[in-house]
Amino acid sequence: MEDSFGRRITTLRLSVIDRCDLRCVYCMSEQPNFLPKPEVLSLEELERLCGIFIGLGVRKLRLTGGEPLVRRGIGRLIGKLGEHVAAGRLDELTLTTNGTRLAEHATALAAAGIRRINVSLDTLDPDLFRRITRRGELETVLDGIAAAREAGVAVKINTVALRGINETEIDRLIGWCGREGHDMTLIEAMPLGEFAASMMSHALPVTELRDQLARRWTLINTDYRSGGPARYVGGRNRAAAGLHHALER
To answer: How many CA atoms lie within 13 A of 245 on its CB side?
Structure first.
């Protein structure tokens, strides 16, 4: 497959469900309108679709949602897709998750050949976490991240930078990722849906955030890539040692 610019398409991002067990303020309303179940592809249809794309040259596959791990029977689909990894037809199978169901699925993810995942995490403060997600518990997500690491799955943290909400948490998150060995991507809030007007007042451009971080961190350019659109730099706190990857999308 090629796009209109003649570039080969080798990566597929597949949303397996539009539902989520959190209601993050920058992503979803408290009472969202989900698709009727008959309009959502079955797991068998998703498996068949992935097989077609793999046959057309897709080599990397990322599962997303909503929250993919809330999909009933998702473990079966992941296991089937893992067979393509084991057979060499797929180079990489990855997952983006909010981490709330990660502890119960981590071992199965590793067994299916998943070697790295993205986990959305915007703060290490339990109260602020509940405020941002409207219903989540930070400890549950941290337990899931720990379970993934124990299973041998590398974790990259995705953090949406929000002015006046979690911008004072960014340094803490970067330091924590460095100590725990996680890469980190800082993401700008996107003007999506009904939240475009209200949430854009909290948008914190990555260029501005980088300038802020440069006052407290020595940012070191790096050729490191994770396969996505993010561009990474190394960071060393001006007041403490510890080099790790962070920034920027």
So the answer is: 19
